[in-house]
Design a protein that fits this description.
heterodimer, A: 292 residues, alpha/beta, Rossmann fold, Alpha-Beta Plaits, 2 domains, 9-stranded mixed beta sheet, two-stranded antiparallel sheet, 10 helices, 13 strands, B: 276 residues, two-stranded antiparallel ribbon, 28% strand
């Protein structure tokens, strides 16, 4: 199985829209499975009209633990508080309170407690599930519960689940979160090819360069899609010069088209909404296939 | 008294930075305003406002330093580390993967030979810039470092130090709803969620509204690109969470043009609404 990740740094440049249609294109001749690794704001399945009620499974999981203090045992030595690097233990009326939002479950407090008053308890920090699209491939997704941490580990679960769903799939297609932090690193690591989506704006360009640093760090082959390339032709030239100077392949340039938003509103991939995009996404697929 | 407002949204690309920069710039004409770019993964406010930034300081995170002469190969550190940052197989001396380390210190506490001391790694920078009367402070996470939240915490320290000098502090958060976004809300009294009227925008707005409820923060909604999709869903959500929609901003070529060329963006009525 080969895995392809779609990322961008900047949000809203079209990662999920492109992932959805590219997945459909790949599914025509291959067995594929998708992983929606934007676990903060999981949206890929919505582009196939798959709301949570249409999931085949949607179950609470735990990828994180939090410290729980047994006040009967606590001798108020404050060692836990002094050793918490995340300031997640605070004193309130001389009682130590663990802030659930801040606790990373590292266990340092448990190790320093002289009277074994601290245990680590798994918390239900996310939901994990999957749904089947009408194109007969699965989307593995998760939703981190608001206020919880540990999105990197949830991303790993989504990828594991995708592999379990289709053990003999030809391609795993991964839709990453925005940014470059822990969930993105967990999405990119160990993949065979990265598609970095950008748009011709100063922000899009700046974020593209940061996203490329992540991809290069893991030594993953990559190509770029310039979305909405015609909103700023001068800047598109600048992007093209950058890719040429750095020998980066431009896989495709996609024009700005309000139909993308119309398709999104209808909750269908753009290739289902506007037939001319079938050939465009087939071309993207062919370009990617040449590389992996 | 300073007023601290965070701009967020859940989904990426809904217009958070557009709203934050526009609001801060407009307010700065008659007030002293600090804009804080807390989207530290991909800070862009300086690009939108065309501000040249100067580094204030580097941000470091502690990491363990292993004294391999003292190490007895017991493997405790590898077993203790919950982030896969230390690999110790078959009683061999540990291999440390610094990118994975969040500095928790559990390995050091658990080492029976005192073979672990502290070292540090640079994880990002803070920088500052000025446009006319507007001050901008940005956090910038170094690529390949995972923990954005640490940089946001440093921005919170700056806000705490500076807040008496300003009438308004506008905080521009990252996309998503996890740690760095929650950290960016810490100092804010009011939160504005910028969304777009699509099923995706709606889905992510809902998560933000739940989060605000958990954190007990007051929120308002701005619908950007308001003429693009179908507003029904967002309106229902606003009603359900008893959150007011304060502004609808239709899609405009001028805004896109300004955004893509690095000019301050004007959104009519925005600053007067916030003052109310």
């Amino acid at each position: 199985m080969k895995s392809i990740v779609i990322l961008s740094g900047k949000g809203g440049v079209g990662k999920s829209s492109i992932t959805a249609s590219l997945a459909v294109s790949f599914s025509k001749e291959n067995k594929i499975v998708c992983a929606d690794c934007d676990v903060d704001a999981s949206n890929l399945s919505l582009l196939f009209s798959l709301t949570e009620d249409k999931y085949e499974e949607w179950k609470p999981i735990s990828t994180n633990q939090i410290a729980v203090i047994d006040y009967k045992k606590c001798i108020n030595c404050n060692k836990c508080l002094e050793n918490c690097y995340f300031n997640a233990i605070k004193l309130k009326n001389e009682k130590k309170i663990v802030n659930d939002f801040g606790c990373e479950g590292c266990g340092a407090c448990q190790l320093v407690c002289p009277v074994n008053a601290i245990t680590l308890k798994p918390i239900n920090n996310s939901f994990l599930g999957y749904a089947k699209t009408k194109y007969d491939f699965f989307i593995s997704s998760a939703q981190l519960q608001p206020g919880n941490s540990g999105s990197g580990k949830v991303v790993s679960k989504v990828r594991e689940q995708a592999l379990e769903l289709e053990k003999d799939a030809d391609f795993l297609i991964i839709d990453s979160a925005a940014g470059i932090g822990c969930p993105v690193i967990a999405s990119v690591t160990g993949t065979d090819y990265a598609i970095v989506v950008t748009e011709p704006t100063p922000s899009g360009f700046s974020d593209l360069k940061k996203a490329i640093k992540i991809v290069d760090h893991f030594k993953i082959k990559k190509g770029i899609i310039i979305n909405k390339y015609d909103i700023n032709p001068l800047f598109t030239n600048k992007l093209e010069k950058y890719t040429k100077d750095n020998s980066i392949k431009i896989i495709k340039k996609i024009p700005f088209d309000k139909n993308f938003i119309k398709a999104m509103t209808k909750m269908i991939p753009i290739i289902d909404f506007d037939d001319q995009y079938n050939s465009l996404f087939d071309e993207i697929k062919e370009e990617v296939l040449k590389e992996i | 008294m300073v007023e601290i407002i965070a701009i967020t949204g859940g989904k990426g690309g809904t217009g958070k930075s557009t709203v934050a920069t526009s609001l801060a710039y407009e307010l700065s004409k008659n007030n002293s305003v600090l804009l804080v770019d807390a989207d530290v993964d991909c800070p862009n406010d300086h690009l939108i406002l065309n501000i040249e930034m100067k580094k204030i300081r580097s941000i470091f995170q502690r990491i363990p330093r292993f004294d391999l002469e003292k190490c007895n190969g017991c493997g405790n550190c590898g077993e203790t580390c919950k982030y896969n940052a230390i690999i110790s197989i078959n009683k061999q001396k540990p291999i440390f993967i610094q990118e994975q380390c969040n500095g928790c210190g559990a390995c050091k506490i658990g080492c029976p030979e005192n073979a672990i001391s502290w070292n540090k790694k640079e994880i990002g920078t803070l920088s500052i810039g000025q446009k006319e009367k507007l001050t901008l402070i940005s956090g910038n996470l170094k690529a390949t470092q995972p923990i954005s939240e640490f940089i946001v915490n440093e921005l919170n320290i700056e806000i705490e130090k500076e807040k008496n000098k300003f009438d308004y502090i506008i905080i521009d958060t990252a996309a998503g709803t996890h740690c760095p976004v929650i950290a960016a809300f810490e100092q804010a009294e009011k939160i504005i969620a910028v969304t777009e009227p699509t099923p995706l925008g709606e889905h992510d707005l809902k998560i933000i509204l739940i989060l605000l409820k958990i954190l007990n923060k007051k929120g308002k909604i701005i619908i950007n690109k308001s003429d693009f999709g179908n507003q029904e869903g967002v309106k229902k959500l606003a009603q359900k969470f008893n959150t007011k929609i304060i502004l609808e901003v239709p899609y405009s070529k001028e805004i896109v043009q300004a955004y893509s060329t690095g000019k301050p963006i004007q959104i009519p009525n925005l600053s007067s609404l916030v003052k109310e």
